[in-house]
Fold this protein.
Amino acid sequence: FVTWRLADSLPKSVVERLNEQKTIWETNHPLPWNETEQKEHSRLFILGFEQLLDDAHGKCVLAQQPCRKIVSDVLHHFHGERYHLDSFVIMPNHVHVLFQPLGENKLEAILQTWKRFTAKELNKLPGNIGSLWQREYWDRLTRSEKQFSWTRNYIFKNPEKLPRGSFSIP
């Protein structure tokens, strides 16, 4: 499961503060985590971060149908060849994808391809000039059927968090 976001989706100071808090928490809770620690980590740093993204900061260029189509087309492009694409959602300022790399294909290379190609294509559209995506991304290995189901459900329900009519799924 991977999430990446637009460069203007969150102020740098907010991201730095969250990362500092996460580092402190993880230092005080070394791996491996028990189920309670895993839930606390998710609540504090994953869901909290997602809530900030869902507040739709920045220009939210992915709310525009042509932009969503470009991202959607890129995600489908190597499905079945480099990865198995299970589900995804394109939010106004970030993207969630649940997929499985195939063969020797690595997560980093797949994501780099997605981001590089979509940035190139999106920057061809009027008004989209410059650095598009944040360098970092968030990923999580899905280790159980329960996590897989939860993640898939999260993806499907994510658009419900936005104000009505603010965008639609591609």
Q: What stands out?
A: The two ends are 19 Å apart (CA to CA). The CA atoms of residues 86 and 99 lie 5 Å apart.
